[in-house]
From TrEMBL:
Binding site for heme: C448
Keywords, ordered alphabetically: Endoplasmic reticulum, Heme, Iron, Lipid metabolism, Membrane, Metal-binding, Oxidoreductase, Signal, Steroid metabolism
Similarity section: Belongs to the cytochrome P450 family.
InterPro entries, per the entry: CYP450_sterol_14alpha_dmase, Cyt_P450, Cyt_P450_CYP7A1-type, Cyt_P450_E_grp-IV, Cyt_P450_sf
Gene3D superfamilies referenced in this protein's UniProt entry, alphabetically: Cytochrome P450 (1.10.630.10)
Cofactor requirement: heme
Signal sequence annotation: 1-26
CDD domains with a match to the protein in the record: CYP7A1
Binding-site residues for substrate, renumbered to this chain: K107, N292
GO cellular component labels: endoplasmic reticulum membrane
The protein's annotated pathway: Lipid metabolism; bile acid biosynthesis
Protein name listed in UniProt: Cholesterol 7-alpha-monooxygenase-like
Length: 517
């Protein structure tokens, strides 16, 4: 008996080692090079997580443009040749994005699993709402509402004199509130505070933003598979946001966007959904509308204020557009109104925003193989893909490619302008023109449907910030801020830390030459 007790741990250890050896995946003929890593289950997750860009570059040097890595229990086949992105997109029959995205959203946001066949008809209607309310002529109403809300929030800074605040804090407190109100309308109780007892809107928005950040802070861990119930603060924050976005509240709000109104109507038709699940779908919409727009706006303004050439060019464009719109100095009673076409014509701000996105975007485009199939790359090379494996494209590899973008780590405000000052679309690799050269919003079926509104709201913010504020960064001589790579794969990377901004609200509606640099 004693001998049995003595040998038992040894037997268990041997059994565990045997299981690990047997469970290690072997590369089959025709498959891409395979890296299992040395840590069970995790594979190469730690190496990848430390710096995805450098990890993939090192793998590319060793294995070429396609290889498979085990990451946190799943197998990811990375396709790094940008000319082969189209080959992946054309595999719609063998590669699925929708089930992966819906399943992930279900785990993180806690709404119903819309992969369930019972929702198959309704979910198609939900997806069509994005195109019908966020693209084309109907986008103008959303743009107009955002412009009104931005100016209303900014006007609160009037009369405060010079103020010092973190640039990230400055951008987020304005953009978050304006974006929230544009989509979800004005909270009725906050509107009625003067009649007694209701929450002031500034306090309501501060609480909402704190909850948003608490939830968003845990997003990398949840994306890696950690259940939200183990992220206590994030779970409570998500539920607090869901309470604010409950249909009983939203139905009393003023100025609901068409996007949210139509989503509410569609969800109300689904008898299987309870009210809490409906509210959680709106939390997912709030996150989608803010999580990448906030850091993208931060980086755009940060680079403008750091670069005198960018600041001069942006100011000149803002002066021109506001002048063409009939806005005159000192007339704060006349709100700034810009059309979708006027915003589209602001090519300088467009180039600045795209360059900021290029430098800060680290999104990953993922598809899941629904069957075993053979992927043919642009070069003609083939790769056998197993059912259940993930196909991953990492556009940051392209964004930071010195063959495509000269001095790729440097900010160049006119990088996306041609010789005529219009949007540049000619970028090359290996002597060939790239059809897709900037992909901060994904591509194909995973392309963000709200990308046009996102670009427009950043342009609106920059226009109004340059119009209404004198601004200066605290230390222009400091080294450029670095991005926080812990959020790689989720979209736009935030800065590792904030930077001090000194500003004051200026009582005029056109940019003055005396803007502090």
């Amino acid at each position: 008996m004693a001998a049995l007790i003595f040998y038992a741990p040894f037997v268990v250890l041997c059994a565990l080692l045997l299981w690990l050896l047997c469970s290690v995946r072997r590369r089959q003929p025709g498959e891409p090079p395979l890296m299992n890593g040395w840590i069970p289950y995790l594979g190469v997750a730690l190496e990848y997580g430390r710096n995805p860009l450098e990890f993939l570059r090192s793998m590319q040097r060793k294995y070429g443009d396609i290889f498979t890595c085990k990451i946190a229990g799943s197998y990811f086949t990375f396709v790094l040749d940008p000319f082969s992105y189209g080959a992946v997109s054309r595999q719609g029959r063998n590669l699925d994005f929708q089930k992966f995205a819906i399943g992930f959203s279900h785990k993180v946001f806690g709404h119903a699993d819309f992969n369930d066949p019972v929702y198959s008809y309704n979910i198609k209607d939900i997806h069509s709402i994005f195109r019908q309310t966020l693209q084309g002529p109907v986008l103008q109403q959303l743009i107009s509402t955002m412009m009104e809300n931005l100016q209303a929030v900014m006007r609160r800074d009037e009369g405060h004199g010079w103020t010092t605040e973190g640039l990230q804090v400055f951008v987020e407190r304005i953009m978050f509130e304006a974006g929230y109100l544009t989509l979800f309308g004005k909270e009725e109780e906050a509107e009625a505070m003067a009649t007694g007892g209701a929450t002031p809107r500034w306090l309501f928005m501060r609480q909402a933003m704190e909850d948003f950040h608490a939830f968003d802070k845990a997003f990398p861990e949840m994306a890696a598979g950690l259940p939200i119930h183990l992220c206590g603060r994030a779970f409570r924050a998500r539920e607090a946001l869901a309470e604010k976005l409950h249909h009983r509240h939203l139905k009393r709000n003023k100025c609901l966007s068409a996007l949210i109104e139509r989503r509410m109507h569609a969800f109300d038709q689904m008898e299987q959904l309870d009210e809490k699940e409906k509210a959680r779908t709106h939390v997912s919409m709030l996150w989608a509308s803010q999580a990448n727009t906030l850091p993208a706006t931060f980086w755009s303004l940060y680079y403008i204020l750091r670069c005198p050439v960018a600041l001069d060019a942006a100011q000149a464009e803002v002066r021109r557009v506001l002048g063409e719109s009939g806005h005159t100095p000192g007339n704060l009673e006349k709100p700034v109104v810009l059309s979708k076409d006027q915003l589209a014509g602001m090519s300088v701000l467009g180039s600045i925003i795209e360059e900021a996105l290029r430098l800060s975007s680290a999104s990953i485009m993922i598809r899941v193989a629904s069957e075993n199939f053979t992927l043919t790359l642009d070069t003609g090379k083939t790769a056998a893909i197993r059912k259940g494996d993930h196909i991953a494209m990492f556009p940051q590899m392209m964004h930071m490619d010195p063959e495509i973008y000269e001095d790729p780590t440097e900010f160049q405000c006119s990088r996306f302008l041609d010789e005529n000052g219009q949007k540049k679309t000619d970028f090359y690799k290996n002597g060939r023109k790239l059809r897709q050269f900037l992909l901060p919003f994904g591509s194909g079926v995973s392309e963000c449907p709200g990308r046009f509104f996102a670009i427009n709201e950043i342009k609106q913010f920059l226009t109004l910030a340059l119009c209404h504020y004198d601004m200066e960064l605290h230390d222009l001589a400091a080294a450029p801020l670095e991005t926080d790579c812990t959020r790689a794969g989720l979209g736009i990377l935030p800065p590792k830390h904030d930077v001090s901004l000194r500003y004051r609200f200026r009582n005029c509606v056109t940019v003055k030459e005396k803007t502090v640099r």
